[in-house]
Amino acid sequence: MSRPAPALTDVRHTKVCYSKDTYCGHPRQTGIFNYGNGELVVGHSHAPSRYQVQDDVSHSFTTGYASRAQIIFQRSFDHGETWSEEDEVVIWDESLPLEEKRAILYRADEEAVSREQIDLTSPDAAVYFTRAATGPGRGDRRVLECFAFRSADRGRTWETVPTRISPPPGRTMVRRDAHPLVKFPDGTLLAITIVDGSTPTSSVSVYGSDDQGLTWEYLAEVTRDPTGLGNPGYADILLLPSGRLQCYMLHGGHRNVIELSHSDDGGYSWSERRPIVSWGHSPWAGRRTPGASRRGVHYRAPWPLRLRDGRIVVLFGRRKPPFGMGLTVSEDDGETWSGETIIRDDASSSDLSYPVATELDDGRIFTAYYFMEADGNGFGGTRHIAGSFFRL
Question: Confidence band (pLDDT; 50, 70, 90) for 140?
Answer without folding.
Answer: low
